[in-house]
Design brief:
By secondary structure, the chain is α+β, with helices and mostly antiparallel strands. Helices cover about 25% and strands about 30% of the residues. The protein contains seven helices and 13 strands. The strands form four sheets. The chain has a six-stranded mixed sheet. Strands 9-6-11 form a three-stranded antiparallel sheet. It has a two-stranded antiparallel sheet with strand order 5-12. Strand 1, helix 2 and strand 2 form a beta-alpha-beta unit.
Length: about 260
């Protein structure tokens, strides 16, 4: 997958002008109020809209689904989140060409507490990272909550596909490989490029909470980077920052 990511980023410099959709990440936000939410049943139209937003042929490569807290508590929202993710992936797998990366899905669903992440697996107790692409996931989504007792933690997204095309840049011009405690690395945008990339092609979504599900198209050729700004714990006694994550990768083997 590291090779696929590097080759995909390298190819972005050669995309002909006008040949791809360059939808703004500002258009990625929708609300469940527009889809007649009824319990944790997932509206078909919502699945289609999220899929269209994630598909780089029709949308910006990300989707932010708001309004959940008006209908669901945190536990029900997590159930809804997983159901929505699975249905969106069914649509995306064929539309986005997942077969290029294997025939078998590995969907992972877990809840993570920032400040208590296993260092031996992820290199840090915290999820706050510079702008990057995940190593193996093709699609992921996060639902944050409960959250309390801190400032910061804004979620940042950036579309480097258009940025690299406009400036004629390749992987080595923008990225380094991360240093990980486990085999493999992920592309990380070098710090000196962050201000310009965010100014031209990025968005600050603020600190997400239980009202939002954030989806990111992490296919190698999508060109969407994500990162999280540092958190400052303001109340250690109340501090909590959990997020429910769904992700999927493709493999050539059907066994776990």
């Amino acid at each position: 997958m590291m090779t696929a990511r590097r080759e995909a980023f390298d190819a972005m410099a050669d995309i002909p002008a006008g040949s791809v959709v360059e939808a703004s990440l500002a258009a990625a936000t929708i609300t469940v109020h527009d889809y007649g939410l009824d319990g944790i049943a997932v509206p078909d139209k919502l699945v289609e809209t999220v899929t269209d937003l994630l598909d780089r042929a029709t949308g910006p490569g990300a989707a932010v689904v708001e309004g959940l807290s008006d209908f669901l508590d945190v536990d029900l929202a997590r159930s809804f989140h997983e159901a929505l993710f699975r249905q969106v992936w069914e649509n995306c797998a064929s539309r986005l060409g997942a077969e290029r990366f294997g025939r078998h899905d590995r969907i992972k669903v877990n809840t993570t507490s920032d400040g208590a992440i296993p260092v031996e697996l992820y290199g840090s107790e915290w999820s706050f990272k510079d702008l990057h692409s995940d190593r193996d996931a093709l699609l992921f989504s996060h639902l944050y909550g409960p959250v309390a007792g801190f400032d910061g933690g804004a979620l940042l997204l950036a579309d480097v596909r258009g940025f690299m095309r406009r400036h004629g840049l390749r992987f080595a011009d923008l990225f380094d490989w991360s240093v990980e405690p486990t085999p493999g690395s992920k592309p990380v945008l070098r710090a000196e490029h962050v201000p310009q990339v965010l100014a031209e092609a990025g968005i600050d979504l603020g600190a997400p909470g239980p009202d939002q599900i954030i989806f990111v198209n992490n296919f190698p050729d999508a060109g969407i980077l994500h990162g999280v700004a540092p958190v400052v714990v303001t109340d250690p006694q109340r501090y909590v920052r959990e997020f429910h994550r769904c992700s999927v990768k493709r493999t050539t083997r059907s066994d776990p």
